[in-house]
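One-letter codes give the sequence; the fold follows as tokens. Both lines appear below.
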Amino acid sequence: MNAEMIYGLVTGIFFGFLLQKGRVVRYDKQIGALRFQDMTIVKFMMSAIIVGMVGIHFLDIFGLVRLLYKPVVLGENIAGGMLFGLGWGLLGYCPGTQGGALGEGRWDALWGILGMIAGAGLYAETYPLLMKNFLGWGSFGYLTIPELIGVNRWLVILVFICGILAMFRWFEKKGL
């Protein structure tokens, strides 16, 4: 095993530990998020996004990473979002929490994992057809929000963080 694999294993174990400690692998938390009755998962995801966003951009400033952006393609994003939402709604687990739920002994998550594997195989087999007919629609190339609106990336990050913190405060006032 090389260093990258070891780092991946360690961060994966740490992330799984945090998923379990945050109780976001629980079915009732998943359904609560989908029904807008329990925002624990939303808070967890938004906190992870903020930490990752700030961390990766600091690493970029110091030259420790090189940011590689994927092209913005509406067809791919719409299709992926619909599949993600459909799977989460039907099973009650998102892809990230299924492994954690299975690790806790929740065997119902195994069906979702098997479904993801089957879905990945089906996607790979139908990719050329999907790309030609739908997935390639709405390609905007390599575009970021700061580039789109013409501002410094840290301004966008700051506004995003302030918005998330305001959302957290609102959730707390509503008891979510």
User: Anything to note?
Assistant: The helical segments are 3-21, 27-34, 40-61, 74-91, 95-103, 108-135, 145-149, 153-174.
